[in-house]
Design a protein that fits this description.
With 277 residues, the chain is an alpha/beta fold. It is 44% helix and 14% strand. The radius of gyration is 19 Å and the shape is globular. It binds guanosine-5'-triphosphate.
């Protein structure tokens, strides 16, 4: 069995940064390799060590230049091209061995998860290749400062979850930017009643039944809980990794790999045995 995270979320929510943080955590804290594959043909730059890059197959810039498409049409064209040339991606993962771990950094456009088949096709291919895949949906914590924004974010996460049918984790990114007294606990804890109370106070009464139906649906799908990720807080990174790994059952009984340089000072060693998976 091989393992993978499929990292999704709106443009600019911090997907690539999330991938870099997790790759670094694997390397330093767990001393295991984590290969990150860029699946965004519109990506510009990223901080992780990229194992394979879809832009070697096709980039949105090339599509826009050669076919005179706009950025959104170019992205859809590029992803459909990837779908027709799935052998490229199969080739990139062809040397994956048992217990290998991959992260796929996906494009953000919602239509790829709502009504285009390509992301589902990629997931199906990975599962056929013996990958156990977790869907990781990133939402910028700054965009859930009120209940209606939270509801929009949760519904877009639900779209991806329903479409891909993967074990699913929602991650609130950029928590280092939260002001000290920010009140996001109710969203993190999945307190649907508190969220509905906020919605009742902030939206017109004619939306009351709709809001309550949406709140009920989120509760039914257990979608109102999120893991907070603060890149400056190692405990929060570890918690996030352990949530994701728990849902794909990665890590039990795995030894660290022997090919990492150890820090000179033993005190710098991170206690990877304590990882809570
Ligand atoms: N302070 C802070 N900034 C972050 C964090 N994550 C991302 N950013 C910033 O947010 C911006 C977007 O981050 P990316 O990681 O490129 O986001 P993305 O979702 O991959 O973006 P697209 O690929 O364009 O959809 C960059 O300027 C990052 O430096 C974080 O955890 N903390």
């Amino acid at each position: 069995m091989k393992f993978a995270q499929f990292v999704m979320g709106p443009a600019g929510c911090g997907k690539s940064t999330y991938c870099a943080i997790i790759q670094e955590h694997f390397k330093v804290a767990m001393r295991r390799t984590c290969r990150v594959v860029n699946l965004d043909p519109a990506a510009e730059n990223f901080a992780y060590d990229c194992y394979a890059d879809v832009r070697e197959l096709i980039s949105v810039d090339d599509v826009m230049e050669e076919l005179d498409y706009g950025p959104n049409g170019g992205l859809v064209y590029a992803m459909e091209y990837l779908s027709e040339n799935m052998s490229w991606l199969e080739e990139q993962i062809s040397d994956a061995l048992d217990d290998d771990y991959y992260i796929f950094d996906c494009p953000g456009q919602i239509e790829l998860y709502s009504h285009l088949p390509v992301m589902r096709e990629i997931v199906d291919m990975l599962q056929n290749e013996d990958f156990r895949v977790a869907g990781v949906y990133c939402i910028d914590v700054n965009f859930i400062e009120d209940a209606s924004k939270f509801l929009s974010g949760a519904l877009s996460a639900l779209t991806a979850m329903v479409n891909l049918e993967l074990p699913h984790i929602n991650v609130l990114t950029k928590c280092d930017l939260l002001p000290p007294k920010a009140d996001v606990e109710r969203y993190v804890d999945g307190d649907t009643e508190a969220i509905l109370a906020d919605l009742r106070a902030s939206t017109h009464p004619r939306f009351r039944m709709l809001n309550e139906a949406l709140g009920q649906m989120l509760e039914d799908y257990s979608l109102v809980s999120f893991v907070m990720l603060n890149r400056d807080d190692e405990d929060s990174i570890e918690l996030c990794v352990s949530h994701v790994n728990h849902c794909i059952q990665y890590g039990e009984n795995l030894e660290p790999e022997g090919n990492f340089d150890l820090p000179e000072n033993d005190a710098d060693l991170v206690d990877f045995d304590a990882q809570d998976v």
